[in-house]
Amino acid sequence: MLGMHLMNYPLLVHIEMLSAWGYLIAGTITWITANGMLLIYYQSIRIKLSDSEKRFRLLAENARDLIYRYRPGNKPQVEYISPSAIEITGYTPEEFYADPAFFNNLLQPDTQTSPEAAREPELTSPNALLQWRHKKGHIVWLEHRSTPFYDKHGNLIAIEGIARDITDRKNAEEQITRLEESRRHLLSDISHDLRTPMTSIQGFVEALRDGVITDPNEKKKYLDVIHARVLGINRLMRDLFQLTNLEASQTTFNLAPVPIDVLMQNIYDRFAYEVKQKGLYFTLNNVSSFSDDTINGKAVNQKTPRVYIDVGRIDQVFTNLIGNALKHTVTGGTIKIGYTTTPGQKEVAINVSDTGLGISAQDIPRVFDRFYKASKSRNSAIGGSGLGLAICKELVKQHGGRIWIESNPGKGTAVFFSLPINQS
Ligand code: ADP
After folding, report:
1. What spacing in Å lies between the alpha carbon of 387 and ligand 1's midpoint?
2. Cβ proximity of 287 and 327 under 8 Å
3. CB–CB of 131/108 below 8 Å?
């Protein structure tokens, strides 16, 4: 337009009154053009800015790490927190925005002193390992990197940070430490458990060899003790070998579906004599009384769930559990075996309980550890290797089940283990 207007100039230059208008129109058009160009320039910058903001926001929104900007001070505020907060902390970004002191609420109670005092040194240190409490209650380990921002007076005005959830790594590290510790214990336990019977065998053999014992009855007693010790060492070696193989998944399982009623009845029949011999009562619970099918000559309720098991290995679990119940229950007591399941459930819970001495609360979490004996003195007399429950745990685990203990010291113990129901 300006060009077309300027082309008129040579024609209008002699008409004096029009030349002023000509300049005015030219000036106006130039002014409009300049403004238009400015607007276009600002618009293109705005688009570029919003594009790059979108890109960065996308990065932050999709990041698996927690990215945030926090403003401390009298009115602390979370200015930005990425959506990964939901997965890592269990809380939504909105919850962080709504409660300015939210960061402090996530602190473990024992490290929470005064809100700001507790948090800021950790948040402003460039690299820190933080522990936060997840909404569900568990502890989350965070590897935290941050950049603090200060005003010209040196006051902290903002903290920007990235926190990575390293809970899995931390747990794995702890597990490695535990394994390392358990390996050390294992070696010292094996040498201890071997040395004790060996010393006694040595003593008895020397006494016999030196002719100190002449009475044939005494000699027989000594030989019996030696025999018992050798059996104990053999048992220890066998258990240890089996446990090592189980833990290394080097044991093969011949799995077959077995109706739970049949399994329980067989176990009951197998142990009834031994239990009664020890002067204890033995009962079988929760087995369906009606039946309309037979397997191996046993009456079976067709609706009875079937468990997919290696019968020999599960038999061994019962042997260990009932063996323990026998060892720790005095004459006149009762041993019960049974199972519970409800329609629609995917597993049966089998139990072996006794009315024996029980296990104290502090021992319960450790009785599944290798070589753990709740009471050393009591057990050395009874002669356990301390491996029985560890083996049971591995055997049950390899069947896809779990094992746990409930006990009331002085009243008795109940060991439960679950087995998945065969759905086919
Ligand atoms: P052990 O071969 O010594 O019996 P286990 O691994 O089978 O080893 O058991 C570990 C410890 O747990 C035992 O030494 C015993 O103190 C305790 N324990 C296991 N079962 C029972 C039970 N039914 N009643 C009381 N204590 C038990």
Report:
1. 9
2. no
3. yes
